[in-house]
Amino acid sequence: EVLRQRVAAREGQGKDASEAGLAVLEHQLRSIEPLTAGEQALAVRFDTEQLNAEQIRAHARELLFPYEHSI
Question: What is the C-alpha separation between 59 and 39, in angstroms, rounded?
């Protein structure tokens, strides 16, 4: 439901260059495939309802470049 709200809000602003509206989202949700075991082992989940974009970027940088943060 959060995805639908975000896409609808983006469409309502009328400034988005993407043509990926609600119809595209609905198609993606209908055709979603679960991650394989190998993909799950590498996947990282972020709760985008709890974290803002900068917090997500910071966490991703820590995961991708762990030694840069220990200096």
Answer: 19
